[in-house]
């Protein structure tokens, strides 16, 4: 079944773009980025910019926007069974050419995991006319609970370190 991602959480003041791959099933069902309660994204954003998991989704979006962070996904759509990025086929990227034209203050992309970086490198970079050399590209540990290579606090430390140098 073909699934579709969400519009970006972004403002004209956004400086950092956090890119995931595409929303998981729980996120699609609820219409919210990182809606799976086991995903550590909102825990990390709660520590970084006060977008704590216990706030409403609208309140978390406002906190993210006020912090200068944008959230989006590399893929606009794909075919996927289940929630795992490993089962993605027929990926279609978002329109990054237009995105970067509309949001020139973006100076860094933080990839939420290796798969997001992989799809960006393979599906987006070849389509961009502009040179990305002015953008800082950083791959961070996935906030997914299925990423068990690092514990929650180790992930938090890496995310804090990256963002603190950029904002």
Structure description:
The chain is α/β, with parallel strands linked by helices. It has one domain: Uracil-DNA glycosylase-like domain (Uracil-DNA Glycosylase, subunit E), CATH 3.40.470. It is built from 6 helices and 7 strands. The protein has helices at residues 25-30, 41-49, 57-67, 96-102, 114-124, 152-164, and strands at 2-4, 16-20, 69-73, 75-79, 89-93, 108-112, 136-140. It has a 4-stranded parallel sheet with strand order 3-2-6-7. Helix 2 crosses helix 3 (57-67) and helix 2 (41-49) crosses helix 6. The radius of gyration is 15 Å and the shape is globular. It starts with a strand and ends with a helix. The model has no long low-confidence stretch (mean pLDDT 94).
Question: Key terms for this structure?
Answer:
6 helices, 3-stranded antiparallel sheet, 167 residues, 4-stranded parallel sheet
The tally of domains stands at 1
Helix content: 25-40%
Gross morphology is globular
Q: How would you name the CATH homologous superfamily?
A: Uracil-DNA glycosylase-like domain
- Tell me the number of strands: 7
Structural class: alpha/beta
Supply the CATH class.
Answer: Alpha Beta
Strand content: 15-25%
For this structure, the CATH topology is: Uracil-DNA Glycosylase, subunit E
User: N- to C-terminal separation?
Assistant: 39 Å
Residue ranges: pLDDT <50 for 5 or more in a row?
Answer: none
Largest sheet geometry:
4 strands, parallel
The second-level CATH architecture is 3-Layer(aba) Sandwich
- Please count the helical segments: 6
């Amino acid at each position: 079944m073909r699934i579709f991602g969400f519009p970006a959480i972004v403002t004209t003041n956004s400086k950092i773009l956090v890119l995931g791959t595409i929303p998981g099933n729980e996120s699609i069902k609820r219409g919210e980025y990182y809606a799976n309660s086991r995903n550590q994204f909102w825990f990390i954003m709660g520590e970084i910019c006060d977008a704590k998991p216990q706030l409403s989704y609208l309140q978390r979006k406002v906190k993210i926007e006020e912090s200068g962070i944008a959230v989006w996904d590399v893929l606009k759509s794909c075919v996927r069974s289940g929630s795992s990025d490993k089962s993605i086929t027929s990926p279609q990227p978002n329109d990054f050419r237009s995105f970067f034209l509309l949001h020139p203050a973006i100076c860094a992309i933080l990839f939420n995991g290796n798969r997001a970086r992989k799809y960006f490198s393979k599906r987006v970079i070849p389509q961009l006319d502009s040179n990305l050399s002015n953008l800082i590209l950083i791959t961070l540990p996935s906030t997914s609970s299925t990423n068990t290579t690092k514990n929650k606090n180790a992930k938090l430390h890496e995310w804090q370190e990256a963002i603190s140098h950029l904002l």
